Amino acid sequence: MTTRTLAQRIVSAPTSDGAGVRLRRSLGQHQGARLDPFLMLDEFSSDKADDYIAGFPSHPHRGFETVTYMLDGHMLHEDHMGNRGDLLPGGAQWMSAARGIIHSEMPQQESGRMRGFQLWINLPAAEKMKDAGYRDIRPEEIPEATLPGGAQVRVLAGRIETASGTLEGPVTGVTTEPVYIDVSLPAGGRFEHAVPEGHSAFVYVFEGRAAIGTDTLDTHAAGVLTEGDRVEMAAHEGPVRFLLIAGRPIREPVVQYGPFVMNTREEIEQALADYQSGRLTA
After folding, report:
1. Cα–Cα distance between 273 and 267 in angstroms, integer?
2. Does residue 202 sit in helix, strand or coil?
3. pTM, whole model, 2 decimals?
4. Alpha helix locations (H) across the chain?
5. pLDDT score, position 219
6. What is the pLDDT of residues 147-170, one digit of tens each?
7. For residue range 117-139, what is the model confidence (pLDDT) as tens digits?
8. Which of 73, 95, 76, 72 is nearest to 86 (CA)?
9. Percentages (nearest 5) of helix, strand, coil residues in the chain
10. Torsion-angle region of residue 198: left (phi > 0), alpha (psi -120 to 50) or beta?
11. Strand, coil or helix: 43
């Protein structure tokens, strides 16, 4: 067995998106900060309503999937297909834009804390023009467990072995075979997990500091991991909480223009033309 180590740090950078939502972007802050098949990871976290109240009004996507995971707060998803999904604390949504979707994500609160993440996962060329899809994942659908070493985990995608059996996340059947696990470690705690060899993998620390072998990763930073079939993490100096995300690389050209991610410039131009003419979701 080969334990993965830290290959690259990507410190998240403050930015804004939507109608002015303040957030931090790690993966995706520039083209060199991608990790096939992952295009972008945003963290949003604020107690100030002005930082999030404008939300993400109606906007288009084509060619990839979005995963929104909510820790605190309440947002409402609505799309052109008639889907409505309440994003509640501990819940998630998994949306496949595929050939085209127009949706909005708007805060359903005027005060209090709003905290969560949005991950963009690329789709292979063969799936970019399939029908769009959406799944609302309730908090109680995401399995939880406490592991040896003190780790508390929530599994959105992938599987993890526990003393009482295999814990499998609610999201299955995705071509990139994603792993998405929320891990909390107490001071002195450790976390070990098998990750498929050949998968791209990274961790994102959002509370405390994590130890990866002899390296450490600070709060609000992504750590791209080397090849291997195992991840070993530890809390450094105090409690830590992080996301472990992995997926099978697609190994295809990526051409992105804002909310459209395709394989060629011509396909991007077609996406723009389809959106402007109303054919994006036809």
Report:
1. 10
2. strand
3. 0.96
4. 265-277
5. 98
6. 988 999 999 999 998 888 899 999
7. 999 999 999 999 999 999 999 99
8. 76
9. 10, 50, 40
10. left
11. strand
